[in-house]
Sequence to fold (428 residues):
Amino acid sequence: MFADNARVFIKSGKGGDGHVSFRRELFVAAGGPDGGDGGRGGDIIFQVEKGLNTLGDFRHTRKYVAEPGDNGGKKNCHGKDGKDLIIRVPEGTIIKDELSGKVIADMSNNNLREVILKGGRGGKGNMNFATPTMQVPKFAQPGKDAQELWVILELKVIADVGLVGFPNVGKSTLLSRVTNARPKIANYHFTTLNPNLGVVDLDGFGFVIADIPGLIEGASQGTGLGHEFLKHIERTKVLIHMVDVASTEGRDPITDINTINGELEAYNPDLMKRPQVIAANKIDAIFEGDENPVDKLKAEFEPKGIKVFPISAVSGKGLNELLYYVKELLDGLDNTPIIFEKEFFPKDLLDNRNEPFSVEKVDETTYYVGGPRIEKMLGYTNLDDEKGFNFFQKFLKEKGIIDKLKELGIQEGDTVKVGTELEFDYYE
Fold:
């Protein structure tokens, strides 16, 4: 089953504890310390699997935990390292922190393998703490804690060209005719339930085209299937609007294009900066004698720089002209792949849990909370989102910051300033 979204829990392995022991040998009255170090915990690693094209496996398994390191042993025995856990995903998968919504990694282009969570470091055994003044250390270092996160996986297909349009305008027919794709085709709405990809080969020049299903009015708000599939347009560099120019179902092609452009802009305004071309399909169904709807399309959109090509996806008429024009557009664009930049660094956030913070009373009704750890939390948390704000409040409670505010005499309705960005009224 095709799936392009998943929510999973990931946790690296805890480091093994260092061991406390002493040599016990015949004729050795007082052997020195010989407690070994703990093993390193396993990492959580995401890796691209080239043959994979869906996140469907994550619907059955939602928890991924790497092996912990073994504890150290006597006779200087080092604990065994925990095995790394490799999680295989399709190319084009975005890994996001669930609470902040920020990108941890984009598994595409050359980034085919990335360590997302590091395993805990093994603790040192007591043999490491012997000194001339402390020859019998009776303590060892515990292993470092594991790291854990809830993450969202989003698959954004990798294609040069996005084929968009209302249901039943002939996108799947076009894709099957000009590429090696074999999508299922039937004459009813929402036939295509997942993005179909195909490779167009023009005299040795190839580009990937994706049929993006489910776009209707309200798609950017989740109506129909649009919200599920709009994400797949984000990597494309050129958009082909496909319309039923003959209005065989009573739809107005000009209105359809303007509606879809409105949905694209509402979802991501950057999409409107990409070159567009219009494929005016079903020209073989236009009745002679009527005003030519292709001319109306050209009059509306070509002055805006959007070229219109009359085609028939069924017969193949006009397809070469359309495809070679798309090739020209791609030739004139930067061929650097569209990559989603890293915004969230789990190591920085999770490895600095004990950084200092300060809680101060500014005046009778105002309190200040600050420090490096607080500033990092603000940077990683989406405070405009209710879930993100609740997460931040939980952090304040867990770190004892709320208790400290109470000790300083905070009352309901007083103002709390957090770092340089956040200010809120305090209520129990």
Q: What stands out?
A: The chain has a mean pLDDT of 82.
